[in-house]
Design brief:
- The structure is a single chain.
- By secondary structure, the chain is mainly alpha-helical.
- The protein has a single domain (5-259), classed as Rhodopsin 7-helix transmembrane proteins (Rhopdopsin 7-helix transmembrane proteins).
- It has helices spanning 5-31, 39-61, 65-95, 104-129, 136-166, 176-201, 215-241; strands at residues 247-248, 258-259.
Length: 265
Amino acid sequence: MGLSAFEILDIIELLFFVPALIASGYLVHKHGYRKRLGWRFLLMICLFRLIGAVTSLVAVKHPTSGLTITYDVMNSFGLSAVLSTALALLDRVEDGMAPHGLPHQVFQLLHLPSLVGIILSIIGSTSLFGDNTTDVSTGFSELKAAVCLFLVVFVANILITGHCFLKISHILPGERRLLFAVALSLPFMTVRMIFSILCVFANEPKWFSTWSLNWTAVLVHGIMGVLMEAIIATIFILAGLTTAPATLLPAHEGKVTYDWGARSV
C-alpha cells in the first residue's frame, strides 16, 4: 500500500527539520539561549514541526483525538515561533541602535499576544477535536481569536522592520544582516500568515486545512505552511551562522545588558 499525501508531507518535514534542528541547536549554543536573543525560538520552529510530523505519522495508523489535537496545536506553535523569532531578532537590532531604537519594553509587550494566541490555540484545538462535538463552534471561535492575535504580532514585525530601515544608519554593521534576514523572511511569513487566516476564516477545508486528508488541502498546506516555515528557518539559520554572538556585559544597577559591538564573522 502506497504512502498517502499526508504521510509524504510528514516525511519531507522530517528530512528537512531534523538537520535544521541540529543547526538551530548550534546557534543556541553559539549565541546563547536567552529569550531576547531569539535563537531559542528558531529551535522551537524546528522542534514543533518535528513533533507535528511524528504525531501525524503515528495518527495515520493509530488515530486518536489526542494525536489530532497535538498535531493541530503544533501548527499554531510553529507560526507563533516564526513570529517570535523575527520579533526577537528585531529587538536585538533595535537595542543596538540605542538611543535611536525602540525600548525593550515594546518587544516584551508584543510577546504577550503571541503567548495568549498559543493558549487559545490549545483550547480551540481541544474543543474542535475533542470528544465533545458540541464544542466545535466554540473551538473555531477560539482559533479565530488566536490567529487574530498572531496577526497583531505579524503586523508589528512589519512596522518595526520599516522603522529599522528608516534608522538604518544607526544600526551596527554586524547587526544589519539580522535586519535583512527578517526583511527577506517577511514575504514568506505573509504567505504563512495568510494560510492560517484562510484555514479558520475561509471555511474551505478542501483547500485550506491542516488536518484534512484531501490531497489538494495537503498540497496547499505543504506549500503555504510547511515550505514557508522551512524557507524562513533557513534564512534565520544562515543569518545566525554569519553573525557574531552578543557579549553579555556585567550587570549594572540590576540590569542585564549586551554588547552588540561584536561584528559579523
